[in-house]
Fold these 2 entries.
Entry 1:
Amino acid sequence: MAVSASLGTPRISMSRRVAARLRRNPGAWIGAVILLAFLTAAVFAPQIAPYDHTRQNILRRLQPPSEEHRLGTDELGRDILSRIIFGTRVSLQVGLISVSISGFFGTAFGLAAGYFRRLDNVIMRFMDILLAFPGILLAMAIVAALGPGLYNSMVAIGIWAIPVYARVTRGSVLGVKQTEYIEASRALGVSEFRIIFRHILPNIASPLIVLSTMRIATAILSAASLSFLGLGAQPPIADWGGMLSAGRMYVRDAPWVAVFPGMAITLTVLGFNLFGEALREALDPQVQKRN
Amino acid sequence: MERVSRVLRHIVQRLISLVPVVLGVSVTVFLILQLTPGDPARLLAGQVPDPQVLENIRRELGLDQPIHIQYWNFLVGAVQGDLGTSFRSGRPVIDEIRTRLPFTLELAVVGMAIALLVGVTAGVLAAYKRNTLYDLLTMIGSLIFVSMPGFWVALLLMLAFSLELRWLPASGRGGPLWTVDGWRHVLLPAVTLSLSSAAILARLTRASMVEVLNQDYIKTARAKGVPNVVVVFKHTLKNALIPVITLAGIQFGDMLANTAIIETVFAWPGISRVGVQAISSRDFPMVQGVVLFVAIVFVLVNMLVDLLYVFLDPRIKYD
């Protein structure tokens, strides 16, 4: 009880300090505004989108941007702006779900490896094997097994990042495990379960939050890449990677079909990267000092 | 002489340490595809297969054996250079890899060279001109490049340099790198491949340079009146590049994986494009072979980077 109470005060002032640092960082503001805009688009897509994003009109196919269709129409005459707005839902969903998968399992593995010495070697050698697959290759291999599709690509991207979380978590646990308050908790007879979830996890949350913000960006990019290769979301889902893939056939005569979805991906990923970077700087004062 | 034998011993130790990782990779690749729903024999036998035909195919592929025997056969075959036969083309997987892998490596190596040249130069200059407009623009630019999907950049570059300006070809491989046509063809895919790595390398180079510039021996050099250019390029660069080299190794792996996208967009005849097509057509032996090979190349590159690290940083001991 005494241990938790003593931990409470510094945590509040720390979050205030972080919020103050974030407020002073222009990158954080730009990132937050971008993310808020896309989040609004995702939540209110049916209200914001000017047209039904699935409605086809072959007579109005590949129309350039105009008053009627702000970002033009695609190869089936669908309104690109409406599809991009609905595509926000898919992208954010992919980012959040796949990061939740990797965050949950990766953190669990990392906690177990960092806290229980006898599990460390087995878990981390397995993680090393997963890390031996470069870039998106592991995700592609998993999709090869599960079959193409939006949900399978989320699972694949989720599994791919598990070792990254496991490594970060394990490293942080090893740092925190030796601190006096953990030793004190142990001496007081606090259960291991309580030590891990009540005392260690909250204290290693900062690097995990930063990692998650950055990984959402990577997950969105990777899902778009899988869709582009025909391994992710399948038509008629309004998915930015898939829109780009279809648009590349018409890149010469109707470049807007591929250009705008690409801009949407870049902006969203940039938003997460900017905010993640700002968060990292705010949580690690050393970074600011070095610059 | 003693130094040489220590280095050799270190190399042998590193090679031995690779064995469990490569074995683990092979088990993972094998298991991932074993867990696949559906029967590979059915894929080969066609729409409405005769049960006898199915049985024969299963026996021929060894699919009637227990899973550990199947893995053992796969492993023994792989060690002997037999990765099975492609369901799609009917050719041995290893032949396809032997023909196509050099093209993928060529693309990745040129991409890496561009990324290192552009990334390190931009990072060093940003650190040299720290807190100036150049520094700010380089860092903002690098964040934008990291955020752009490679296939989108590929389409934009293709649109600009192939379709509009007609300077460079939009697809295919022109020939070996010692020919003009070879370079004209490799340039667009390699630049696309290099962009995000160049951006990441630029950021790390800057951060690493700034870190070294804050160290005491640099402050001493400055106090002694050594000119800024000499301090940055002579005293700082070598030490700052050590972490950059490790990252370059990881980036090379990412590039190898990203060739799947770039080869598809630019119709580059590499192994990654074959891998993507194999995934779409559920050609499992080919997927297995390609994934295994790319992972092994990545592991070997990382080992080389580790060794290079030891040579570059005198503080690291061989044993």
Entry 2:
Amino acid sequence: MSILGNRVLRREDPKFLTVGGTYVGDIPIEGALHASFVRSSLAHGRIESVDLEEAVAAPGVVAVYTAADLGLAPLAPMGLLNQEMKRPLLAEGVVRYVGEPIALILAESPAAAVDAAEAVIVDYEPLEAVVDPSQALEGGVLLFPEAGTNVVFDLSSEEDPELFSGCEVVVSQRIVNQRLAPCPLEVRSAAAEMVEGRLRFYASTQGAHGVKDELCSALGLPPEQVHVISPDVGGGFGAKGGPYVEELLIGWCARETGRPVRWTESRSESMLGLGHGRAQIQQVTIGGTRSGRIEAYRLSILQDSGGYADVGAVLPFLTRQMTPGVYDIERVEFHSRSVLTNTMPTVAYRGAGRPEATAAIERAVDCFAAAAGLDPAEVRRANFIPKASFPHTTAMGTEYDSGDYEKAFDLALEMAGYDELRAEQERRRQRGDRCQLGIGLSSYVEITAPVSGGEFGAVEVRPDGKVIVRTGTSPHGQGHATAWSMIVAEQMGVPLEQIEVIHGDTDIVPRGGGTGGSRSLQLGGSAVHKAAVDVVERARRLAADELEANPDDIVLDRSLGLFHVAGTPAITKSWAELGAASLEREGEPLAAETDFEHPGSTFPFGTHVAVVEIDTETGQTRLVRHIAVDDAGRIMNPLLAEGQVHGGVAQGAAQALLEEFVYDTEGNPLTTNLADYSFISAAELPSFETAFTETPTSRNPLGSKGIGESGTIGSTPAVHNAVVDALAHLGVRHVDMPATPERVWRAIREAKGAA
Amino acid sequence: MSLELEITLNGKKVAAEVEERTLLVHFIRDVAGLKGTNIGCDTTSCGACTVLLDGRSVKSCTLLAAQAEGRQVTTIEGLSPEAGDGSDPAASERMHPVQRAFHENHGLQCGYCTPGMVLAIASLIDEAEPGTLDEEAIRLGLEGNLCRCTGYHNIVAAALAAARQTGAARR
Amino acid sequence: MIPAPFEYARPSSLEEAIGLLAERGEEAKLLAGGHSLLPLMKLRLATPALLVDIGRLEELCYVRDEGDVVAVGALTTHDTASRHELLRQKIPVFSAVAGQIGDPQVRHRGTVGGSVAHGDAASDLPAVLLALGGSVVAVGPDGRREIPADQFHLGFLETALAEDEVLLELRLPVPAHPAYGFEKLTKRAQDWAIVGAVAVRREEGAGLGLINMASVPLRAAAVEEALAAGAPPAEAAERADEGTEPAGDLNASPEFRRHLARVLTRRALEKAFA
């Protein structure tokens, strides 16, 4: 019987449950200096002076650095972006957002480092700040005057004036996909030390190899001089996709001082230092027939990139690919501009560009259904890309691999009891209940492993029978050790306990693309799968030699993990015996290494149904049910896959209802800690109702697609649509996210006033 | 300036001279070297630093070490010491019912909130009147423990499962 | 996350504590549970030079039945108050509200005296004390004095307590009828109230306390008057925002807060008179 598809409990749990994980801040390093940063308190200004005198003299302080001390070249934006907008590692002359690091202090204790940072006085000449992306686009205030624009990345073209001609129903809506703080529970942390002339760097990251590359590039070091280790990582959600300037500087400090250096930020610091997510202003127009056929769709977005050209600036590229979602729409247009503003730079956040696409099309479809007077479920059903047409190339040129959108949709509606929910909604409307019911749908398709690049995997059998798996992706909660063990156990017929999975160490794993864009299973898992297949093949040949038989006649009994000649199961060779034989006969371990080439992205999909109750007097919204039917191809371990969906749904619902990172008009951040930023808790959520349909992909040997981000992508528009749906009979057509009590109350009041 | 303090951590007396401003969580992590207790925020919001003080859940970031002087503090390492450090499967069988329920219900992912969650739930169950804990009570009881990975679904399931074992769950 | 340096004293008696406060004046701060003060110190929004830790003074931990008043010692935790049989029986509004403050961990440490003495208009307990028409007892170098709840809160985080006074107990009059209404709107369960209303039955009418409707905790005097004059609850509740000065912030505009005050007051009254 196959182990794949079973609810295998996580092998990594007991350590976390008994003594806790080992995160960067937990790693003991003798004699380390502690770093702290002096950060800009102004959104935009020229630095007139930095008075370090008191800090330098403070007890325990070893060194204080500003930009002039570094001698490091500024960081160039990634290739697609405006190359004029380079980022210095510490602010040089100008600060561009509140929280930008200006000076770095090294001290003998964390308290001494923080005390000294408080003693630094920075004088600024304030410059006008631009916070609203629309104003940034106008260019009245430029963050990089030498660039002559705030536009970092432009994907816009001439609009087709005829796009909606012939459409009987056309609706437009402005949608704010608000700025969020990713908030992994573990904030950023780094440690660095010189070991035998090499830089050893501990990173809380989604990819150790990416950190290594950037350290080499920023500090001018050859690869062999840098060793990056990512131990347990307390969540990343995209925002730990690459190293931040602070982390690069910790590496620099260890080299500069010759002493170990460590840094762990506070949450208040993290809210101003870990990249933010989303932050798009969208304008949608959708048109079609009165009977519900969608004929044309235009999405125009303004992406807020924050103070520098970071990953967030390029994400509209992914939004673009997913513009029409699950619908077969003939005429589709996409325009986007990414602009700098005097705010925290934006980066990838769970979904990274795709939730924004789904949020836009799914709100648009509901707006269209409302305008046409149709049930949003019927409009969706009428416009799905049909099952028979896969692989399907959309009007944006994206090739979706496989799909059965209606199947997931039907199951979701059935689980929700859609018709009964509508009947209950009608009863409450008729009675004029204070507490109204809203039902929101979202049918999504997303792209996983969206970026090219393969993945490394290796399997080695030791003479004691232990199997060592090395992988180029690494977990921050996903359960790689369990999932990769299952894949290897399936191929080799060894018990899970005999398998050890190694990741996140650049000295042991030669290459790796890390964990992000839901790429791990389909690339990293496939690489490990391929390596296991290769090892079985090598072992078969070895067994043939040992048993003096033809390799073609050797079979692996996977239930026992033993090789024998077909028909004579009594004489066997175990993995341990073959591991030893390999060393003996060939002088090398029984092992296989592979680089799984990127075979094309995959496109998971599904339908979410959210049910909300809204107190129409206070505007308070409660998510009372959330049904998620997701299809990520073949499911390796439903327990882990469900876990990914649950977490994603909570984050997605949080965007619809609660979370928003807010700046005032001067660029002062207002939600700088977890008391002010409404990180969602258990008390605001129900238990979720989840199911999977399984439509395999042919783009990898596992038949699997990514599942890490689907929950976030599917849930936000479902909950958002449910909010508007609850108020539709009162004349409300849209409420921006997050649907706070006051926003809901105002929407009702304005609709009443308009009626 | 400094204080001489002695705190009983997981049944063992730990004495040290510390600055007055030392928070209990820093005493646990940096003085006693017990790294299972994590810090997730600085506003008493997230509960990652939850420990038991004389058997009741508290946020160790919002106590001075001095306030815990002479008292009993239990961290995740001390909840079921007989269960070892997770490396021995036989020992892991001896985990506390809440720890076991977390494992069996996939109540953890990145693990960062987990020690605080487990101790908060252990306290919640311990304090509940028999037969009173239902999903709503558990969700409200966890309002001060944030998790970014699990969406709380499996944490709540684990808490209910553990409460059923002790008789705290609503029948 | 790391407070600025300070001195720490743990007096063994109330007299000693008062002596320290008198000696050090405004640079000293009392520490009880620490759940109002330490969060501010960690963000360095408060930097007292001396902390006077009274958290172990057993003489401030009690709940005493005095017939028509229940006296609650300042160091009683929210958790203890929420579970205390005498309170649950005689003044259920107090134990119920105490049981909804913050989260369980906060309730294990936070004290009722600390909550009232901190004087935050967004706290729940001061509004209960106002609705009940209760008082607080303070003790200083010149002895004890009783301060009625509606004279205790003077301004933003400012109370009638002198620098060298310690809040000793809350005096809660036993209401005419145990039924009460407590309504608060929060973003998340653990958050402070955006607005809240507490209604307690009196011989005639009701006592009404409002949370977060001005820089200080307030009594909804206009509602109380209307009820005493015989107005039905729904009508009286329409006057809930009279005399209030709600702030505008991230969570609500003043206009929305006024609306909420009326709605939540009506609901609190409906529950109290159900």
